[in-house]
Amino acid sequence: MNTDRAITSEETVDIPLDRIDSDILRKMIEEFVTREWSETGDSEYSLDEKVEQVRQQLHDKRAKIVYDATSETWNIIPRR
Fold first, then answer.
1. How large is the average pLDDT for residues 11-24?
2. d(CA 64, CA 9)
3. Helix 47-59 crosses helix 22-37 at what angle (to 10 degrees)?
């Protein structure tokens, strides 16, 4: 009997922050905020301020980084 289970398109893996180099984490957050905030045109905050907001949400466990094995992409999402 095969006990391996197939990965579905909805399956994601949480990436622990302590497994990500701080420079890489910074680059990931920068990419995320430039992608997500570009649509809103929000110029009230600088890039550094936006990065710090997201970093704080990650450290406070209000958000998390997830990896989708099917699409081979990562994202930052709110925790539920």
1. 94
2. 18
3. 110
